[in-house]
Amino acid sequence: MAHSDKQYRDAALAMLPNGPAWNRAAGSVMYSVMWAIGACMAVLENDLSQIALETRIPFADQLLPEWEADYDIPTDLTLSVEERRTKLIQKSERKAFPSESELIRLSNMVGYTIQIVQHLPFCCGDPKSQCGLIEREIGVTRSVLGIIVLSSSGILSLADYTDYIQSFLPAHVELGVTVANE
């Protein structure tokens, strides 16, 4: 939720110490300074909100060419922004689910020895779909990947490793990473 310049001004004024040197009265120099700071903070918050939206394909506008380049989609200015976003979303969701051996290889590349304990690729199309060894009802929209880290001599922290592996997975995959003996 965006804050107004008045809200920022009032918050800044409330943090000032009490006393005659810290005059909060409307029209005082301090009031004018805090009003200017509040206006700048409101603009900054709005700009940061717009940047945050640009980092998500469904809301990207100014960064569409960069997103298209990331997914090797030629920029087609004859399409509407919404059509371009739709193409990007479709391509991003087609990311293949890596095999267990590929996940182990990717982990070894960054110094992690892992054991995969659950690998259930997304399946649907029948009243009951077989995903791995588990039968699931239609409508299941998430797959699960469970990884146990057996050892690590890598350059990545566990959080960075999790982000690294997640970058190879389709958006619908839920990833769980734990360290052995913890």
Task: List the defining traits of the structure above.
alpha+beta, 6 helices
Present the secondary structure layout.
Elements: H1 5-14, H2 29-54, H3 64-70, H4 81-93, H5 100-109, E1 112-120, E2 128-131, E3 134-137, E4 143-152, H6 158-166, E5 173-179
Structural description of this entry:
- The radius of gyration is 25 Å and the shape is flat.
- 41% of the residues lie in helices and 19% in strands.
- α1 packs across α2.
- It has 182 residues and is of the alpha+beta class.
- β4, α6 and β5 form a beta-alpha-beta unit.
- The protein contains six helices and five strands; from the N terminus they run αααααββββαβ.
- The protein has two domains: 5-92, no CATH class; 100-179, no CATH class.
- The protein has a three-stranded mixed beta sheet. It has a two-stranded antiparallel ribbon with strand order 2-3.
- The total strand number stands at 5
Mean pLDDT: 79
How are the strands of the biggest sheet laid out side by side? 1-4-5
- Principal-axis shape: flat
What's the SSE pattern? Answer: HHHHHEEEEHE
Rg from Cα: 25 Å
The low-confidence parts are 122-134, 136-141
Helical percentage? 40-55%
- Note the gap between the termini: 39 Å
Largest sheet: 3 strands, mixed
Q: Which class do the helix and strand fractions yield?
A: alpha+beta
Domain module count? 2
| Percent strand | 15-25%
Number of discrete helical segments: 6
